[in-house]
Write a structure and sequence with these properties.
Layout: H1 12-23, H2 29-32, H3 53-59, H4 61-77, H5 86-89, H6 102-126, H7 132-152, H8 159-170
Helix pairs in contact: 3-4, 4-6, 4-7, 4-8, 6-7, 7-8
The structure holds zinc ion.
Length: 177
């Protein structure tokens, strides 16, 4: 059913991550604090809304800035409009007309998703502060790293798809913060 969760361009840890996202089995604070007030389990990015999977990954203003960069990047390689809803971003259900960009979309969504999650954990468990800009730079580094690893493979399949993303990202302006 969820083909993209197990896409061949993804390393195993990201396949596992996608599976957990789609099944909603990761710990977000609200799950552990059902009896408490929402204010006590505020989203670690914006501190204004309760932390739910949909909020931190789709609706939060912090994540929206990151996804906006992603949307700009995608519009550089395609003329299609991507719908940024939870179905697409969490369940990885990529609309049929976008199958041509399957590899790029799956990698971009997964890397972005995973970095948002890592960032969220650094704030919650290590008291670190961060900005959407830093997350975006992290996504760009991850794409380059995946490209590097793909080139080392005996039978590289996704080198061109990744190179397209790297080129498109280099042409984009970064947000100020
Ligand atoms: Zn938030």
């Amino acid at each position: 059913m969820w083909l993209n969760i197990n896409h061949t361009a993804l390393p195993n840890y990201l396949k596992t991550f996608n599976y957990r996202c789609a099944r909603d089995v990761r710990p977000v604070l609200t799950k552990f604090n059902n009896n408490r007030l929402a204010a006590e389990v505020a989203c670690p990015f914006c501190y204004t809304e309760p932390e739910t999977l949909n909020h931190i990954f789709v609706d939060c203003i912090f994540s929206k800035i990151v996804w906006a960069f992603f949307a700009n990047l995608f519009s550089r390689i395609s003329s299609f409009k991507l719908n940024f809803d939870a179905e697409t971003l969490i369940q990885l259900r990529i609309p049929r007309q976008l199958y041509l960009f399957d590899t790029q979309l799956t990698l971009l969504i997964t890397l972005t998703h995973h970095l948002l999650w890592k960032t969220r954990n650094q704030i919650v468990y290590e008291n670190k502060t961060t900005t959407p800009r830093k997350v975006i730079q992290g996504i760009q580094r991850s794409i380059k790293y995946r490209h590097h690893l793909e080139k080392q493979k005996a039978v590289p399949v996704h080198v061109d798809a990744l190179q397209t993303l790297i080129n498109a990202a280099n042409e984009l302006k970064q947000p100020r913060n």
